[in-house]
Amino acid sequence: MSKKLFVSTDGVTKSQLMEVMKFHLNNFNDEGVTINNDTIHNSVLSDSDGVTSQTSSKNIYKGIIRWTMNANGHEDKPWPLKWMEQSVDELSTAII
Fold it and tell me: What residue ranges do the domains of the chain occupy?
């Protein structure tokens, strides 16, 4: 049996999801942006910083968050079209 991360009785909570999001944003943060619930994704992530478009920080981050949600039993909901313009709090509300 595989170990699941951040599991609560209802899967990942919004608070836990925001912590995961902030952790990964901090890993991509080469601009010194303060990472908190109000951090706008496009202030840290880019779609042009990878070797290919698939390896951009934007796409890697989205894949990590989708995997985290899926691994913890959540539906793979469509992300807002302009999610890069949303804060951690706004995006977590949309996808939880």
Answer: 22-95
Please say whether the beta carbons of 10 and 18 come within 8 A: no
- Taking the chain, what is the end-to-end CA distance rounded to the nearest angstrom? 25
> What 3-state DSSP class applies to 79?
coil
In the chain, the largest separation of any two C-alpha atoms, in whole Å, equals: 40
Task: Specify the higher pLDDT residue, 9 or 66.
Answer: 66
- State how far the Cα of 28 lies from the Cα of 87, in Å rounded to an integer: 15
- Section 52-67 average pLDDT: 93
pLDDT score, position 1: 46
Q: Are the beta carbons of 37 and 89 closer than 8 angstroms?
A: yes
- Euclidean distance between CA atoms 26 and 4, whole angstroms: 22
Token pair of 46 as six digits: 């880019």
d(CA 93, CA 96): 6
pTM of the model: 0.87
